[in-house]
Structures are given as structure tokens and as C-alpha cells.
Design goal:
The chain is α/β, with parallel strands linked by helices. The chain is built from twelve helices and nine strands. Strands 1, 2, 3, 4, 5, 6, 7, 8 and 9 form a nine-stranded mixed beta sheet that branches. Helix 6 links the parallel strand 5 and strand 6. Helix 2 runs antiparallel to helix 10 and helix 6 packs across helix 11. The protein is globular and about 60 Å long. Bound molecules: 2-keto-3-deoxygluconate. The site of 2-keto-3-deoxygluconate has 13 residues, from loops. One of its GO terms (biological process) is transmembrane transport. Belongs to the bacterial solute-binding protein 7 family.
Length: 348
């Protein structure tokens, strides 16, 4: 296997790429599978775990607007925010069962359904959102979307959750040692769990909707999420420290129930596909703007914010590297090598 040096990858990045959102998301799996019945009157239930004011919520509203406009009001999208239909896993299972039509989860909790998604959970994999776009919209991201129908799901493309940072109630995380003994909520994802264990933390996987209460009651010391989420979910009210670890990037994947998809006409499928891509471009843009805005607003709250030096981030990456090596084998060396080769190309 080609030697993977996460440190080299980390430092080689920061290239200035233009926004590379390829329309390649209209993957082969979704083409030509529909009936020829035109556009029917339909109500489409779409749920997410985050709030309406979050870039994901705003992206979903944009999707609704585009679908309703393109279908002349025949396709109605009913939106559900803040996990009112359940958390990522529960909603994804509802899609598989055909009782919900759309959800947009983080790829991380989906590893139990399709393990290959775990490649995106390697800490310090991406340096910039544009690198993530290039991989997700390129051959690797598409290959994973094309596998989804095997699991009763149709993937229409990737949106952005973003770079994650750690908050906690005990101490500022400035060095790798500062993780020791911290009880941190993670997503239900074994790469995240093992990476935090390797750093000496005590990771506690839990669905997102339980996090605020667990922080408030001190059942856990901290959690990790992008800045927009830390702001939107008011985690700053129950956390003392926000450390800008930028330790991993999380994509959202736009999912449709295959059971539902197979009942749609080609015209209806095209509307949903195009709307997911168009709203996705909007959502990614908003997510990047909101990342900066959220930081400015978080600075005005009581939470103490600290930066991490590149040197310390490298030390963290070194400690976690054995976890990456172990999971690379599990997810498939070929796939992982392809990922690093693509990243090398992007960074040249
Ligand atoms: O709607 C998406 C959210 O449910 C979730 O993915 C948020 O990043 C998240 C987390 O930490 O669970």
C-alpha cells in the first residue's frame, strides 16, 4: 500500500482552488430509472437534525422553493427541522423503510450502513472546503453515491456540514495532552471514537438531539461540531471553552428513499436531482459565509476561544495516525489510496 503521510497531506494543502462544484452529482444510478407519468401531485417529507436558521436548514428551504417552482406547485416539500422526525440514523432508516422521503445527514453516522463513508472521517484529511468539494464531487464521492441504492437509498449529492471544533466545560485545548480525561460527545462513528480515545479523551457517542441537555447536566464535558452548529444550537450557553481544532471535515449527503424514488417519473426525478444540486451550491456558499460570521458572534458570547498552533495540530495528527492506518484497511486500501492520490492531484 502506498504510504500515507497525513502530516504531509495536511501541510501540502491550502491551495487556492475556485469553487469546484461539479454537476457530476447527477450520477448514473439516478438516470433513466423513472416512469414516464409526468408530474403528479405529491407531498414529500424532508427532515434534518439541525435548526431552520442553520445553513443546512436554509439549504433545505431553498430546495423546497426550487422543487415547488420547477414542478408548478405539484410537488410539495414538507420540511421538518431540529430532529422532529428523529436523528440522522433514525431518519435514514425511515427512508429505507419508505416512511420518509428525504433527509440530509452527516456521512459519519452512516458508516454502520455503508462503511466506505468512513474515509471522510479521517482526521485532518482536508485543509479547505474546496478540497472537500473536489473529492466529494469527483470520482470518489460519485462512486460512493452509486453504491447507495444497494442500501435502499439514493444519494443526490453532497452538501457541507463543515470543519469541526471542540467545545468543553473544563479547559482550553491547546495541546494534544489537553484532551486527556475529557468526556466528549462524538457522532456514532468508530473512526471518531477511536481517534479521540487515542488522544486520551473519553468519547461518548450520542445522537445530536441529546447533546445540549447532556452538556447542560454535565453528563459529558464537551462536544465537537462546526461553528454554525455551535452557534445555532447555543452550545456556548453551556460550555466554557471553544478550541479551534479544525480536526475533521464532515460532509452532508442528500438522501432520497429508493422506495419513493422508484415510484417517480423521470421528469420528477430530474426536478429533485437538479434542485438538490442547485440548493447544494447555495448551501455550501452559505455554510462558508456562516462559518466566519458565527465565529464573530461567538466571540461576543461568554465562551473563551483559543486557536491551535499548526505544530500542535501536527502532533495530534501524529497520535491519531495509527487509527487512520487501521481504518484504511477496513474501508479498503484501494479506495483510500485513490483518495490520497486524488488529493495529491488537487494540491499540485
Ligand atoms: O441534520 C444533520 C445533523 O443531524 C447532524 O448531522 C449534526 O454534525 C452533526 C452531529 O454532530 O450530529
Amino acid at each position: 500500500m502506498k504510504k500515507r503521510n497525513v502530516l504531509r497531506k495536511m501541510m501540502a494543502g491550502c491551495m487556492a482552488m475556485g469553487l469546484l462544484f461539479l454537476t457530476a452529482c447527477s450520477s448514473g444510478t439516478t438516470q433513466g430509472s423513472g416512469t414516464d407519468k409526468g408530474i403528479q401531485q405529491r407531498v414529500i417529507k424532508a427532515g434534518i437534525g439541525l435548526n431552520e436558521d442553520h445553513p443546512e436548514g436554509q439549504g433545505l428551504l431553498k430546495f423546497k422553493e426550487i422543487v415547488e417552482q420547477k414542478s408548478g406547485g405539484k410537488l410539495k416539500v414538507q420540511t421538518y427541522f431540529s430532529a422532529t422526525l428523529g436523528d440522522d440514523l433514525k431518519m435514514t432508516e425511515a427512508l429505507q423503510a419508505g416512511t420518509q422521503e428525504i433527509t440530509i445527514p452527516s456521512t459519519s453516522p452512516l458508516v454502520g450502513i455503508m462503511k466506505e463513508f468512513g474515509i471522510f472521517d479521517f482526521p485532518f484529511l482536508f485543509n479547505t472546503s474546496e478540497e472537500a468539494d473536489a473529492i466529494l464531487d469527483g470520482p470518489i464521492g460519485q462512486k460512493l453515491l452509486e453504491k447507495m441504492p444497494e442500501y435502499g437509498l439514493i444519494g443526490l449529492g453532497y452538501w457541507e456540514n463543515g470543519f469541526r471544533h471542540v467545545t468543553n466545560s473544563k479547559r482550553a485545548i491547546e495541546t494534544a495532552d489537553d484532551f486527556k480525561g475529557l468526556k466528549l460527545r462524538t457522532m456514532q462513528n468508530e473512526v471518531h471514537i477511536d481517534a479521540f480515545k487515542e488522544l486520551g479523551a473519553n468519547p461518548t457517542p450520542m445522537p445530536f438531539s441529546e447533546v445540549f441537555t447532556a452538556l447542560e447536566s454535565h453528563t459529558i464535558d464537551g462536544q465537537e461540531n462546526p461553528l454554525a452548529t455551535i452557534k445555532s444550537n447555543k452550545f456556548y450557553e453551556v460550555q466554557k471553552h471553544l478550541s479551534l481544532t479544525k480536526h475533521v471535515y464532515t460532509p452532508f449527503v442528500f438522501l432520497v428513499s429508493k422506495k419513493f424514488w422508484d415510484t417517480l417519473s423521470s421528469e420528477e426525478q430530474k426536478i429533485l436531482q437538479e434542485a438538490a444540486i442547485e440548493a447544494g451550491k447555495y448551501q455550501r456558499q452559505l455554510s462558508r459565509e456562516e462559518d466566519q460570521k458565527a465565529l464573530d458572534e461567538l466571540k461576543k458570547t461568554g465562551v473563551k476561544i483559543n486557536e491551535i498552533s499548526d505544530q500542535e495540530r501536527q502532533k495530534m495528527a501524529e497520535i491519531i495516525q495509527p487509527v487512520v492506518e487501521t481504518y484504511a484497511k477496513k474501508f479498503g486500501d484501494d479506495l483510500v489510496n485513490e483518495l490520497y492520490n486524488e488529493l495529491d492531484k488537487i494540491r499540485q
